[in-house]
From TrEMBL:
EC class (word): transferase
Organism: Prolemur simus (Greater bamboo lemur)
Cofactor: pyridoxal 5'-phosphate
GO MF annotation terms: (R)-3-amino-2-methylpropionate-pyruvate transaminase activity; alanine-glyoxylate transaminase activity; beta-alanine:pyruvate transaminase activity; pyridoxal phosphate binding
Quaternary structure, from the entry: Homotetramer.
Keywords, alphabetical: Acetylation, Aminotransferase, Mitochondrion, Pyridoxal phosphate, Signal, Transferase, Transit peptide
Enzyme nomenclature, EC number: 2.6.1.18, 2.6.1.40, 2.6.1.44
Pfam families, alphabetized: Aminotran_3
Protein name: Alanine--glyoxylate aminotransferase 2, mitochondrial
Catalytically driven reaction(s): N(omega),N('omega)-dimethyl-L-arginine + glyoxylate = 5-(3,3'-dimethylguanidino)-2-oxopentanoate + glycine; glyoxylate + L-alanine = glycine + pyruvate; N(omega),N(omega)-dimethyl-L-arginine + glyoxylate = 5-(3,3-dimethylguanidino)-2-oxopentanoate + glycine; 2-oxobutanoate + L-alanine = (2S)-2-aminobutanoate + pyruvate
GO annotation, cellular component aspect: mitochondrion
């Protein structure tokens, strides 16, 4: 009784005092009470397997004991200094993080959110290149600060107001939903069901999308460019992957025009993709700037921009950069513990092994159900795109998607949604997930899909 009263009170307060845009996923919003590793518990004591990690953020597990112990120790020692004073947790963290990045990406700017990191990366690109224009993909999400909204190309985040000066979008090389693509284009153990017309060892899709990229460079931006932002795999757009080799060629074209290349690793970094620690490494490219957040603090607010000494110098010449909370002792101690846990518990390897196992299992669902159009991703960043049928690839109507989503929750599984029609289920559990839990999740989906097909048949 107490719990249900508290629940109603929460809904009332939410309605009266919180942003009307902070909407809940489910018909009956989930009121969370506690988390442990890959499990979440609501206020009524129901248990859920967390397969979305609070939007791809919990990397090593909710309330991980080692991270909690480090946080508690730091809590009793020192919370805050501002960047005016030095404190060892920041320097320890800087040393650990920089060791994970290749030369010459060795200078770290600590911030508090991904949007803030991308704002700063935009400033850096412009300060370094002395140019204005920046390009990003359609479907990209790089933040929702006024500056980064120019880079974010998801319709629901656009406003009828001037903004995004100097930002241009370019076609997203999406091999499933875009005009070109096919059966061996992307870097994933599972390929699209679209048959590629070219021979197995070549890929026309990449060349066609590169032509489009060049077209943007020739028509929509100034001759000299400030930069190009790309997520190694698009998150918010529904785990969208590009053809193999695309980013490498795109980086070359951007650099020929004086621009710098920025990898937004906010979702893809810290071992989530399994085969590599950073998403850009899966494309065999070396960016000039890397931005990161989310999994970096396992849910604690912290983010960073990492760049080369040369680019850092270009910014320092033009601006005094200051951040009250960026690099605070709590965040840095937690960030260090997260890096240690990823290593000690072999979580990158676990992402690779359990992620690949899961991807292949979800691919079976795609073969079983006409409404599962595509299964894709790498490591523990997986997308399952829902369609009306495999030939038209039209997105499944939203009400039907919502029902499947509700059914998964009812059966004890939390997953995310993505894509401009919200048509893709996004699966990104904490990296400590196990194979039996994956089996459970796949069976929950199978059961939700069977129920859906039965409803459709009526
Ligand atoms: N970049 C990417 C790829 C993201 O997914 C997000 C958040 N969804 C951001 C940037 C912005 O991060 P934040 O919400 O911490 O500002």
């Amino acid at each position: 009784r107490y719990q249900s009263l508290a629940y109603n009170r929460v809904l009332e307060i939410h309605k009266q005092h919180l942003s009307p845009m902070a909407t809940a996923y489910f018909q009956k919003p989930l009121l969370l009470h506690q988390g442990h590793m890959e499990w979440l518990y609501d206020s009524e004591g129901n248990r859920y397997l967390d397969f979305f990690s609070g939007i791809v953020t919990v990397s090593v597990g909710h309330c991980h004991p080692k991270v909690n112990a480090v946080a508690q120790k730091q809590l009793g020692r020192l919370w805050h200094t501002s960047t005016l004073f030095f404190h060892p947790p920041m320097h320890e963290y800087a040393e650990k993080l920089s060791a994970l990045l290749p030369e010459p990406l060795k200078v770290i700017f600590l911030t508090n959110s991904g949007s803030e990191a991308n704002d700063l990366a935009m400033l850096m690109a412009r300060a370094h290149s002395n140019n204005l224009d920046i390009i990003s993909f359609r479907g990209a999400y790089h933040g929702c600060s006024p500056y980064t909204l120019g880079l974010t190309n998801v319709g629901t985040f656009k406003m009828e107001l001037p903004g995004g000066l100097g930002c241009q979008s370019t076609m997203c090389p999406d091999v499933f939903r875009g005009p070109w693509g096919g059966s061996h284009c992307r870097d994933s153990p599972v390929q699209t069901i679209r048959k590629c017309s070219c021979a197995p060892d070549c890929c026309q899709a990449k060349d066609k999308y590169i032509e489009q990229f060049e077209d943007t460079l020739n028509t929509s931006v100034a001759k000299s460019l400030a930069g190009f932002f790309a997520e190694p795999i698009q998150g918010v757009n529904g785990v969208v992957q590009y053809p193999k080799g695309f980013l490498k060629e795109a980086f070359k074209l951007v650099r020929e025009r004086g621009g710098v290349c920025i990898a937004d690793e906010v979702q893809t970094g810290f071992g989530r993709l399994g085969s590599h620690f950073w998403g850009f490494q899966t494309h065999d490219v070396l960016p000039d700037i890397v931005t990161m957040a989310k999994g970096m603090g396992n849910g604690f607010p912290m983010a960073a921009v990492v760049t080369t000494p040369e680019i850092a110098k270009s910014l320092a010449k033009r601006l005094l950069h200051f951040n009250t909370f960026g690099g605070n002792p709590m965040a840095c101690a937690i960030g260090s513990a997260v890096l240690e846990v990823i290593k000690e518990e072999n979580l990158q390897e676990n992402s690779q092994e359990v992620g690949t196992y899961m991807l292949l299992k979800f691919a079976k669902l795609r073969d079983e159900f006409e409404i599962v159009g595509d299964v894709r991703g790498k490591g523990l960043m997986i997308g399952m795109e829902m369609v009306q049928d495999k030939v038209s690839r039209k997105p499944l109507p939203r009400e039907e998607l919502n029902q499947i989503h509700e059914d998964c929750k009812r059966l004890g599984l939390l997953v995310g949604r993505g894509g401009i029609f919200s048509q893709t289920f996004r699966i990104a559990p904490p990296m400590c997930i196990t194979k039996p839990e994956v089996d459970f999740a796949v069976e929950v989906f199978r059961s939700a899909l069977i129920q859906h097909m039965e409803r459709r048949a009526k």
